[in-house]
Design a protein that fits this description.
The chain contains ten helices and ten strands. Helix 3 runs parallel beside helix 6. It has a single domain, classed as P-loop containing nucleotide triphosphate hydrolases (Rossmann fold). By secondary structure, it is of the alpha/beta class. The longest helix is centred in the middle third of the chain and has 14 residues, at 119-132. Strand 1 (5-16) and strand 2 form a beta hairpin. A six-stranded mixed beta sheet has the order 6-7-8-3-9-10, sandwiched between helices. The chain has a four-stranded antiparallel beta sheet with strand order 2-1-4-5, covered by helices on one side. The protein has helices at residues 45-52, 82-88, 103-113, 119-132, 136-139, 152-164, 182-195, 208-214, 232-237, 242-248; strands at 5-16, 19-30, 34-38, 62-70, 73-74, 89-92, 170-174, 200-204, 217-222, 225-231.
């Protein structure tokens, strides 16, 4: 089966005022696969994620050069609807941030903004999204309780469900398991294997072991440069760059 390129990054340079954070980065993101982007602190992984749905627009002095194409269209063109782009490319952050409302309303929040109002109209989408994020069985009898009553791992899966409810085509996860226990981490990793059947997943892992076990392809960044990218098993078993080998074997980082 031919792999479809969902996002194509071409010679991307990113600046915070005069400080350059990404250098001539080119990378393809394949649909219905998990891409892990990893590297030590300061490598540019979070910056890269924020460029992909234009969260960097919110940073004063930020500047992008190069192209990021989604389905062949440059997402930085002036006529791009940024709100719609962020629906298509949803993002989940390291610390879960449930909205101060019920579990149900958290998942339904974005849908209501698009015009869907009735609970009966929303219920099916909310249930499907919670199932995809491996949370439904734990909260199906607690939908009207505050989302803040959930555990940390449950809150993170709720945030994933909130993105999925908007029928995102790409989901970005920036160290989503960094603050979670091993059981919650395993649940999220399992849910990602199901999610990739529907969309493209890009994740910054919280450690090298997670990078090696969950993804189809991996990209190693160091000091804002893409040093190496390829099938995960190949990259970890036979890295082409010495810095990649040193990092994944724990010699630095």
């Amino acid at each position: 089966m031919t792999e479809q390129i969902k996002i194509s990054i071409r010679q991307l340079n990113f600046f915070y005022d005069k400080t350059q954070a990404l250098y001539d980065l080119s990378l393809d993101v394949r649909d219905k696969q998990i891409l892990t982007v990893f590297g030590p602190a300061g490598s540019g992984t979070t910056t890269l994620m924020r460029t992909l749905n234009r969260m960097c627009d919110l940073t004063a002095g930020a500047r992008v050069e190069g192209e990021i194409l989604m389905d062949g269209r440059d997402i930085y063109k002036p006529d791009i609807n940024v709100t719609e782009l962020r629906r298509r490319i949803g993002m989940v952050f390291e610390i879960p941030v449930p909205l101060p409302m019920t579990v149900f309303d958290n998942v339904a929040y974005g849908l209501r903004l698009t015009g869907k109002k009735s609970r009966s109209e929303l219920l099916g989408i909310v249930e499907e999204s919670l199932r995809l994020s491996a949370l439904w069985d734990e909260v199906k009898d607690r939908l009207d309780l505050p989302a803040t009553s959930l555990s940390g791992g449950q809150q993170q899966r709720l945030c994933i469900a909130r993105v999925l409810a908007l029928q995102s085509e790409v989901i970005l996860l920036d160290r989503p398991c960094a603050a979670l226990d091993p059981i919650s981490t395993s649940m999220i990793e399992d849910s990602l294997q199901h999610l990739k059947e529907r969309l493209a997943v890009i994740i910054v892992p919280h450690n090298v072991a997670q990078a090696s076990r969950i993804s189809d392809r991996a990209a190693f960044l160091l000091m804002g440069q893409l040093l190496e990218e390829g099938p995960t098993e190949e990259l970890f078993a036979n890295p082409k760059q010495q810095q990649t080998s040193d990092y994944i074997t724990g010699r630095f980082g």
